[in-house]
Structures are given as structure tokens and as C-alpha cells.
Prior knowledge:
Helices cover about 70% and strands about 0% of the residues.
Amino acid sequence: MASRDQALSLLTAANNHSDLAVKLSSLKQAKDIILSVEPSFAAELFPYLLQLQFSPESLVRKMLLEIIEEMSLKATEHCSLLVPVLLEFLKDNVPVIARQSIVCGTHLFSAILEEMAFQFQRCGKVERWLEELWIWMLKFKDAVFAIAVEPGSIGTKLLSLKFLEKYVLLFTADANDSDKSFARGSKRLFNVSWLVGGHPVLDPVALMSDADRTLGILLDFLQSPGSLPGPLIIAVVNCFTILKILEG
Length: 248
């Protein structure tokens, strides 16, 4: 109870204090508490934490994103309230916040995808909370794809293209990977071959088809290079280079 009261007091200061240094210091201390306690206990603080998404200070919003990423990867099953913030921050008028949201969402997308495959392999089913998070991840994917094809900040578009690259790699079968088993927590990139044999939520045929369509978007970028700055062209070329390696 003392930790909860302390965290609430710190989050109140982070929300309402007039001094930015105090806000950031309070939020840093609240973060340490949230990440140190049991996830179910931490989840009770999420509604108060989420008030910070409306903070006018970008540094406060950026730290909120850091907490969301760490908490989501540590205790995914308790984070259904946190993930929608990523979509809102994609529209933030401060580019660094939108970029951080893409980075955070990219990590979480892979983690949720792997957990869905692992959970079905282990239990023969996928829990409802995980299905709901996957729906949010699909909305996140659509929003990031829109960023990739629309005018905007070069830095933000670069990260959106990297997400597209990651998406294609996740759902492109690796011809060099004959081992279709996997262990939870492994450092291997998810491979769509893990879904061979069926999955109650993930349709490998549809996902691979969507990856092909995404690859077409990247190819369109290369066919009109004059419309892209150099760093974006390099990002697209790197994607095709990696795919060539996967094809063996």
C-alpha cells in the first residue's frame, strides 16, 4: 500500500507540478516503482499513468513511452490499457515522440507475435487478452504503413520503412531455416513457418500475402527514387538485400 500511495503521489506531481525538472524526477521515481512491483499491482496504477499522455511537455510524453515499452515487454498480459497510446503518439506533433512510438511498437509487435505462436504451441489455444493486443498491433501496423506512404518527417518515415521491412521479414519464409521448432525467449526472429499446421488467430497464407503486398509498396519506392531522400532509398535497398539472403 505504501508503494501504491508513493507512486500515486509521484504521478500526481508528474502531471501537475509547474517545474519540468520536478515532473521528470517524479516520473522517473514512479517508473522505478511500477517496474519493480508485481505486474498485477502495477496495472492498478496504469489509469493514473495514462493521464500523462496529455502532458504538454514532450519529455514527459517520451518517458511515458519508455515506461509503456518496458512494462509491455515485461508483463504483456496486463498492458491492454497501455498499447492504444502508441497509436495516439504516432500522430504527435513532436517528431521524436512519433519516432519513439514506432520503435516501441515495432518491438512489441514482434513480442506479441512470438507469444501468440508460443502460447498455441504450448497450450493449444490463445488467450483472449493476447488476441485483443494483436488487434491493436494490426491497427498500429496500418497506421505506420500510412506514415510510410504519406508526406512527413524524414526521420519518422525512415522508421516506418524499417517497420515495413520488419513486417516483410516476419512473414517471409526463410529457405535457410529448416528447424521449425522454437523456444520461448529465443533470440531468433519469428518465422512464419512456425505457423505450419494451423493457428486459431494467425493465418500464415494471409500474412504471407500481406507481406508480398508490402514488398510491392517498397518496390514502388525504388521505381520512383527521385521522390525519396537518400536515407530512405538505402533503407528500402537494405530490405531487398536481406530478403535475397533469406531466399538462399
